Amino acid sequence: MLQLYIILGIVAIYLYFKWHLSFFIRRGIAGPKPLPFVGNLWNYVSYKKHFGQIYDEMYLSYPKANYVGFFKMSQPAVLVRDLDIVKNVLAGDFSSFHENDFTVDPKLDPLAINNVFIAAGDRWKMIRSQVSPLFTYPKIKACFPIIDVVRQSLVKYIESGPESTNPDGIETKSLGERFTTDVVASVAFGVEGMAFTDPNSDFKRMATTSLFSVSFISKDLDTWLRSIINQIIKRREETGEIRQDFLQAFIEMRKKDTQNILDENLIVGQSLTFITDGIETSSTLISFALYELAQHPEITRLVQEEIDVVYERHGGRMTEEGVMQLEYLEQVLFETLRLHSAVFSLAKVATKDYTFPSQFPGSNQCLAIPKGTTVIIPVNAIHHDPAHYPNPYIFDPSRFAENERKLRHRYAYLGFGEGPRICLGQKFGLYQTKCALSAILRHFNLTLSPKTIVPPPVSKKSFLLACEEGIWVKFKKRNT
Predict the structure, then answer these.
(1) CB 476 within 8 A of CB 297
(2) Angle 451-453-459 from CA coordinates, rounded to 5°
(3) Are 74 and 37 in contact, with CB atoms under 8 Å apart?
(4) CB–CB of 196/182 below 8 Å?
(5) 257: exposed, middle or buried (C-beta count within 10 Å: 0-12, 13-18, 19+)?
(6) N or C: which terminal CB in the chain sees fewer CB atoms within 10 Å?
(7) What is the pLDDT of residues 54-104, one digit of tens each?
(8) Rounded to an integer, what distance in angstroms lies between the CA atom of residue 207 and that of residue 186?
(9) 467 assigned ligand-binding residue
(10) Is 35 helix (H, G, I), strand (E, B) or coil?
(11) Which positions bind heme (predicted)?
(12) Is 0.85 surpassed by the pTM of this model?
């Protein structure tokens, strides 16, 4: 009898999985065949491939489809290919997809739920309304004197720092982290990061630590952030010190906050946004921009010519307005982000039942998905689609000249996301990256070190773009 129950149990489990995994088949939707429990992500959970690579393969396997049905572990999900549908998901039908696909426990992660990227619903609207005024260009340009001090430290470090005599050159991700750490420490918190001068800098060590642990935000990072922010606020309240940084802006907003919205968790959560956007993603952009420029001296020369002209226009120095005038350098950064997307995909969750149009042109077979379904926008695959970018693996900044951009679908470029949840730190990230690269290219020529593997191997475990072996570049002093 026991054997019969076991057999019946096995049969019941088999029939359930067969029925559950036929979700898309029963709806006439094409997609890769899933496995029980892991769906279509076996190569990811076994560390054979990055999830972004799996999404790229799905994208390429269904070239005529508007979207693809697949299983994200045990749950049905949709990968979108058509740019008009991408537009609807990110903007047009935003009310149906206003949350990013992140599940965090508020008790475990009080910081995460106050991060503008992760926050949902009314909390996201409230946080966005409080934070977005801090990222206007007038506010950002006002930070230039602070950033310029770090620019000078950057040049000095390349010239005479401990890595200046290394025959392999300098590892550019670490170099970028030193710059962005010192910028964010000063601009956001009004303290010295000391990333260029102190190899044991607490700010650099904590700010570049992994965000991921059992909870989304590591406990050490949570504790450290709360400690440093509370110390700064206490000191300023006791001494009456006022600084022109982003933390001061939060302090001033909290004084006017009669509803107690700006509590400690929210302020610390937004400080985390500065660390992720201001340090991690910007340092990666600096690293890969140097990687591409080191391989393309003709493009580097054009950037240097633009920088030299701007310097001369402003009396032999860079200014806050001069940074804004580096248009070709900005094209270089957009093209770098196209080739090396900081995030491989955007993951949204349906906040209500939703119906997609037909999967294939000419078909009347639509797809209705229930609330809670994950929808993937495969950023990396879209950025490398020759239908949007001819010769997509060629580094060509002219793709982002104004006349060229007008010819493309707006949603063919998603380096910072799009729609209401576009990256709020986009302007600041681009500005500080232009500050760094304009300082480097004003003073140095670049060559790629033989130590650098081409193309750089990407970590299969990291949520954000991360190079496993590092990117090494040699710097040679220019005659300017």
Answers:
(1) no
(2) 120
(3) yes
(4) yes
(5) middle
(6) N
(7) 999 999 999 999 999 999 999 999 999 999 999 999 999 999 999 999 877
(8) 13
(9) no
(10) strand
(11) 423
(12) yes
